[in-house]
Amino acid sequence: MKQIKALIIFILLILSACKGYDMKTVKNVDIERFMGDWYVIGIIPNFIEKHATNGIESYELLDESRIKIDYRFTDTRTGKVKHMQPKAWIHNKESNSEWRVQFLWPVKFPYLIIDLPEDYSYTVIGVPNKKFVWIMSRKPQIPDETYKQILNNLDQIGYNTAKIKKMPQNWE
Predict the structure, then answer these.
(1) Cross-strand partners of 83
(2) Read out DSSP for 3-29?
(3) What is the chain's alpha carbon radius of gyration, rounded to the nearest angstrom?
(4) What pLDDT, in 10s, does the model give residues 91-148?
(5) pLDDT of 48
(6) What Cα–Cα distance (Å) separates residue 23 from each residue in 62, 98, 151?
(7) What are the phi and psi torsion angles at 76 (to 5°)?
């Protein structure tokens, strides 16, 4: 029951992110290349992720528009690995950079790929109201200069970067 209540609160928070927006997404995402594992490096944590470490978001393309997501992390309070497995659909099929993600039927919220270098070494996922962001990398660590540049870019588009926290990635 606690998990359902937490999920409902999370969905309500995300719903507030669904208002109209003008955030730019990247021009094109090679969707097959984007699939796979991404280590969560930095986030504006929601209440579910507040005590998260070792976050990994995995994507698997199911067909030309559906994506399976498995987001897992360790809760530092309990040491248990938690999984979130929302459904996703590519909303903008021209660019593949705007998805809709659904944690609980029938609500879907925008999931925007707002930064992705040519080498696909990292990505930044944003939401329209700029209350949440996920900075992810193909590796458990990201160079400090790259991270600083990402934060600078997020600041320039209106994110409160003081709220972005690094998620510990400890894989020893």
Answers:
(1) 72
(2) HHHHHHHHHHHHHGGGS---PPPPS--
(3) 15
(4) 999 999 999 998 877 888 899 999 999 999 999 999 999 999 999 999 999 999 999 9
(5) 85
(6) 27, 11, 16
(7) -65, -20
- Topology (CATH level 3) of domain 2-166: Lipocalin (2.40.128)
Residue 80 DSSP SS3: coil
Nearest to 23 by CA among 160, 158, 149, 171: 158
Q: 150 in helix, strand or coil? A: helix
Cβ neighbours of residue 36 closer than 8 Å, sequence gap 6 or more: 58, 59, 138
Closest CA to 167 of 89, 37, 53: 53
CA dist 21 and 170 (Å) reads 36
Tell me, rounded to whole angstroms, the distance of Cα 167 from its chain centroid. Answer: 12
Alpha-carbon gap, residue 27 to 113, rounded angstroms:
9
Q: Where are the domains of the chain?
A: 2-166
Strands (E), 7-158: 36-43, 52-61, 66-75, 81-84, 87-90, 98-104, 107-115, 122-126, 133-137
Q: How far separated are the first and last CA of the chain, in Å rounded?
A: 34
Report the pLDDT value the prediction gives residue 106, as an integer from 0 to 100. 82
